[in-house]
Amino acid sequence: MAATALATILELTLAKRLPSALDDSSVSGYNAAVNRRRTLAFLVLIVCLGSIGVWRYCRWRDHRFDTVIVIAAQRYGVMPALVKAVVWRESWFNPSVRGRKSEFGLMQIRAEAAGEWARAEKITGFAPEQLLDPATNTLAGTWYLGKLLKRYQQTDNPLPYALADYNAGRSHVLRWNKGAATTNNALFMAQMDFPGTRKYLKAVLRRYEYYRQMFPEHNHEPAQ
């Protein structure tokens, strides 16, 4: 009799406690779900803000030298889109970068080429370190690029020849522009035995076409 009574008491006690335990479990699960959603929302917000920040930085980086590029391009009769494409490929818009072969600044212009520019412009006291100034660098680099474009004006398209000269040097261009390739830019590019230079040309020319829409008032042919 006593055992039966004890069993009854235990059953009643468990019956009273079970709903409470289930309620606590439901509340805990709900709170965990809410916390997960809050964490996810916070992460999404961080990613969105980060993406906006990266976009704004890239836009600022890509356009902060547009003024000096246009000034240099107008001075020497070169398409600003072409100058900007070279800056993009050579330095990624970093005015303080230096190359392994004494190239300086935005257009990675060499000291020898910049010296030619300085003499042509009758600039005295010129020093290569001045090429770390964006305005000086784009003036010297654009002058040199314009000189190369004029050098190959007898071809069907001076751009690949001038860019190859800018990247690989005159001696290599002379090896590649034999026969019909002297004036046919497609044959000229096909005869290049420097994959890096061919890749350079294609990248700059694609970027040049992309940048042309940013300078609609300057969309005339490069100086020849």
* Strand line-up across the major sheet: 1-2
Q: State which percent range the strand residues make up.
A: under 5%
Mean pLDDT: 86
Total domain units: 2
Q: What fold name goes in the CATH topology slot of the largest domain?
A: Lysozyme
The biggest sheet amounts to:
2 strands, antiparallel
CATH A-level architecture of the largest domain:
Orthogonal Bundle
The first-level CATH class name of the largest domain:
Mainly Alpha
Structural class: mainly alpha
Q: Could you list the spans in which at least 5 consecutive residues all have pLDDT below 50? A: none
- Principal-axis shape: elongated
Total DSSP E strands: 2
What report would you give on this structure?
The chain has 224 residues and is mainly α. The chain folds into two domains: 63 residues; 153 residues, Lysozyme, CATH 1.10.530.10. The protein is 69% helix and 2% strand. The chain is built from nine helices and two strands. A hairpin with a 4-residue loop joins strand 1 and strand 2. The longest helix is centred in the first third of the chain and has 62 residues.
